[in-house]
Amino acid sequence: MGQERFGSFGLATPPARKAIPADEAIALLKRGEAKAGSLLAYGNGRSYGDSCQNDAGMVVDMRPLNRIRSFNAETGVLEADAGTLLCDIIAYAAPYGFFPAVVPGTQFVTLGGAIANDVHGKNHHRRGTFGCHVEALTLLRSDGRTYRCSPTDNVRLFGATIGGMGLTGLILSASIKLLRVPSLDIMEKATRFRHLGEFFDLAEAADQANEYAVAWIDQLAGGHGLGRGLLLTGNHAEHGSHAAANAGTRLSVPVRPPFNVLNRPFLTAFNAAYR
Length: 275
Hints:
Layout: E1 4-5, E2 11-12, E3 19-21, H1 22-30, E4 39-42, E5 58-61, E6 68-71, E7 77-81, H2 86-93, E8 98-99, H3 111-116, H4 124-127, E9 134-140, E10 146-149, H5 155-161, E11 170-177, E12 179-180, E13 186-193, H6 196-209, E14 212-217, E15 229-236, H7 264-274
Parallel strand pairs: 3-5, 4-5
Antiparallel strand pairs: 1-2, 6-7, 7-11, 8-12, 9-10, 9-11, 13-15, 14-15
């Protein structure tokens, strides 16, 4: 059987990407008609390695399950369906002064996907991974039963599901504790470093002083420039906006360039300009 391109990277055989709606999969599981390993939850397809493929059956499109079920504006605990996008959670909670404690490189991931991959953000040094902020989740397993999992209920199943890549069952909903922030605006600072030694001298103090910290390293630089890069740090602005950016505004590239820009001369020039 031939292969097809799936997402941004890699190739997959068609069965590995055949999807069914969440409601159909839930009905199959509750009736006991789903074979073991035949279903795998699929979020919004933003994993770098196109991880959600199922040669043994089908993937389950969880995005129709996208309700925000409840929110406590005092504690910051929000419960939502697994298919809810983080951008929608951000937009909902922002007016109350809350923000997800951990956000990966894109806000266009589902709540269930963030849990299944136990994603990290640029504040890992302070907040840990996404799973550290999950209060509870509901899980539908192949036995047709729904389990409530938390640090006190079905503890082993709870731990296995966080970072479990969907292998423990379908996450139907989850409660997460959000972070209270003064605003959604970020005050960013970029600091150049000339080599890795200088970076390590800066990094510890940067982690202590900032909510967010990430480094970009010019991997093509050599000689005296070996290990040079930028240390990017940031904190929520004290007097900024609580309005979330329009989640519908997304950049797109309508055409592919007629030549491969991922070559050493082009990237060397870009890295020099970026730094």
